[in-house]
Amino acid sequence: MSALNKEVIDLVWGRRTGNGVSDTVFCRWTQGFVFSETEPTALEQFQGGPCAVIAAVQAFLLKNVLFNCENSNWRECSEEERKAVLCNTLSEILETACFNKSESYSLVTWSKEKVSEDNASISDSHPESSHHTMDEEPSALAAEELGFERFHTIIHKRTLKTVGEMKEAILDLYDTWRNKFGVLLFLYSVILTKGIGNVKNEIEDSAEPLIDPVYGHGSQSLTNLLLTGYAVSNVWDGDRECSGMKLQGIHNQATVGFLTLMESLRYCKVGSFLKSPKLPIWILGSETHLTVFFAKEMLLVAPESPSEQARRVFQTFDPEDNGFIPDTLLEDVMKALDLVSEPEYVNLMKSKLDPEGLGIILLGTFLQEFFPDQNSVIPDSFPVYHYNGLKQSNHNEKVMYVEGTALVLGFEDPMVRTDDTPIKRCLQTKWPYIELLWTTDRSPSLN
User: Fold this and answer.
1) Residue tagged active-site, from 51, 77, 98, 426
2) How far apart are CA 391 and CA 39, in angstroms?
């Protein structure tokens, strides 16, 4: 096993001790990008684990189907159209991951001449020299016979110098991506295109593997790598310092967003670069799984109105989401919003906004005073969809998009609550007063 091969394994699966990665965990990741029989543009996930890759690919695939495809019926797709959109999606993610756009791209796939060699390793090859040895999955071995060790001895890296070469090669390897091990081969391709050293530099704890070797779940670093091209471990905007340590976050607005149930439980706070992406598509994270929520309504990602900005700024001074701030913070809020903040005027506003002298400023009262009659650019209601790749998590165990209607209400008493489903709590981290009406009998599952 070459040093490069070992580096990839250590980065993805962790430094292996004892019996190493269990056969169960590895087998859960051995699947390709397979489309649902009942939803032509939806990918199926066979077992828990590879959702970090499958959900990210699904999100970008939906981007291309919804916003880049000429087909008016986005839920209908011919086999040729599916081939094109999947390969374009994989190419786009690889291009995003390339650390230096002038550098080469890497594809990891089968090396036919090494199938019979027990000690083969990942080796560099130029496209011309590898063209006849890599295009198909080895047919001599049944998929179940390829265990963890054996798998890593019969794959190799193909280097492509240009975006055009990379896109052509991905198209040629369509059957490889769809067959068993396609997800892992693509994941390794992303990592080697990014560069092992670059990934390690971005991960907060380089000893933490991208895939948990015990439970098989992908890390946040892996999700961020596929969504943004950067393997940082955090979801906030920009970098932060903690006890002299630099903690890296997200630095640019993402194309596809990310929301997590963990924020509703106050374990983390997703920044605006992920929460407000360029397109109305979000990966939703639960404790153990990733799904996709999306819409066609572009106003959902329109620039903030002044009142929406004011709400966001006010809430940064209300980290516990109480719906109010101490009146001592009113001046800071007004300064942050470029409102008149002279002490005399601030004191006058305190008296007006808190006539009973309770020492607090309510969010609703503040917005009504400074931003009256400013309606949100978001429509009152709009169609939404949810995707979960696991059959067992879908109605009748068929992977299909669940349709619904979202209602984004105005300011309400934060104590008023209707249903309390996990998907609603997750979406409320983006739209605090969202209501969801689904066409199915039950709300879609985040798990």
Assistant:
1) 51
2) 12
Which residues fall within 8 angstroms of residue 399, CB to CB, at 6 or more apart? 36, 38, 39, 42, 43, 44, 387, 388, 389, 390, 391
Q: Is the pLDDT of residue 329 over 90?
A: yes
The per-residue pLDDT for range 89-139, each reduced to its tens digit, is 999 999 999 977 667 899 999 876 554 454 444 444 444 433 434 444 554
For the beta sheet containing 281-285, the strands, ordered from the edge strand earlier in sequence to the opposite edge, are: 257-260, 281-285, 290-294, 381-387, 402-408, 434-438
pLDDT score at 199: 94
69 as an active site residue: the answer is no
Of 152, 156, 217, 289, which is the active-site residue? Answer: 289
Distances (CA, A) of 112 to 8, 116, 161: 20, 8, 22
Let me know if 289 is a catalytic residue.
yes
Residues 6+ apart with CB under 8 A from 327: 350, 353, 354, 359, 360, 361
Spatial contact of 256 and 63, defined as CB atoms under 8 Å apart: yes
Query: What is the rounded distance in angstroms from the CA atom of residue 206 to the CA atom of residue 219?
Result: 12
pTM: 0.82
What secondary structure does DSSP assign to 16-63, as a single string? --TT-S-HHHHHHT----EE-SSSTT-EEB-SSSTHHHHHHHHHHHHH
Q: CA 200 → CA 66, 98, 187, 206, 233, distances in Å?
A: 34, 15, 15, 5, 11
Report helix, strand or coil for 387: strand
